[in-house]
Amino acid sequence: MRPLIRGFTTENFDTDRIERFSCPTNFGARYSHKLHASRNIEVILGANVTELLTEADGGRVRGLSVRALGGKQFWVEAQQVVLATGGLEIPRLLLASRDRHADGLGNASGLVGRFYMCHIAGTIGDLRLDVGPGDVQAGYEQADDGSYCRRRLALTPAAQEANGIANGLMRLHFPAIPDPSHGSGPLSVLYLAKPFVGHEHGKRLKNRGGEGMWLRHALNVARDPLATSAFMWRWLRYRTLAARKFPSVIVPTRDNRFSIDFHGEQVPNRESRITLGSETDAFGMPRLAIAWRHSPTDIRTAEVALNLFAADLARWGRGRLTYDRASVGHHMLRDGAYGGHHIGTTRMSATPASGVVDTTCRVHGVSNLYIAGASTFPTSSQANPTLTVVAMALRLAETLKKRLAATPHLAGSDQRDAA
């Protein structure tokens, strides 16, 4: 791959790291025929587990209570049970399962729902690079298998240790979309299209410059028709219609002007937690109450990373990063918790006193209950969690296969071995 910034050297960041995007997968379309053909898998849609019921001593799940919106109710019994419903719904179900445990299943130490982590992320600053137009590769390249990859600046372990900060990375990003001073027709089209953009991305397009901004954005579009048309065509072809979709918005700059997109680790915080609220849903289950909390280290990591990068650019002499140092925390927290990455709410630990699941992902004190997903992570790292989630799920599958193989009457049973 081409270097991110040709000729730039730094001891604080690894410039050779890449992020690689898999092809978005519709699991129903890709795997439904295999599920239908399988003799030992039964998929039940619209079936909502509302409670886990345990034996009298609370040490084993004896059944799962299931309800459908149409009013149907039924009962599932299984030798082994795996919860794989995400970092929010798993603690919700555990906390709501109180037939033998007044505080919820697996919650003897009061840690179910605690240490809720996402990622600290935000866009900030004005980066100017005094290099040729071909010397910066801020966008994506494609590997031989068609997957999209791009480079980023990742804090080195030595820089983290020397400065007492967590992990983090930075990407070269286009100027802030809501600010029409960028003069970009494609960026202004995105701003004007914000009523049609989903909540997670739309909240980043909020008007932060006063009323009447739409007119200035409309003028950008009018002044930049060729680039705007080309951008919309590429979006339609490579994002809307393509099977392997372009991962994100990339708008080339004319003058090597960028902002910095920071994505960092959130350190574990006991007061950041998921609890049950007073309202209930259609099944009578308590809805979630979420108290996402950050730590000073989370913001300091972003502050130090930006400062190190600015200093490295100054020493290099061919680039300059300016930003309001007092507003780093505001920019990192402006849009709240980074959506989709729900981590740590049933953390893994060596002992029940410090977590919810053991090193095999089994809930402490419950012999046949396992959890698959990022809720088991004791720390968040800076990376998207999905690849590690898949690796842990495969590891858990092997654990269950070995356990069932060691119990012949279970492995050869006609009953379902797991739910």
TrEMBL record:
Keywords linked to the UniProt accession: FAD, Flavoprotein, Oxidoreductase
Cofactor: FAD
Family: Belongs to the GMC oxidoreductase family.
Name under which the protein is recorded: GMC oxidoreductase
Gene3D superfamilies: FAD/NAD(P)-binding domain
Glucose-methanol-choline oxidoreductase N-terminal domain boundaries: 38-97
InterPro entries on file: FAD/NAD-bd_sf, GMC_OxRdtase_N, GMC_OxRtase_C, P2Ox-like
Species of the source: Methylobacterium komagatae
Glucose-methanol-choline oxidoreductase C-terminal domain segment(s): 268-393
Membrane-crossing segments per the record: none
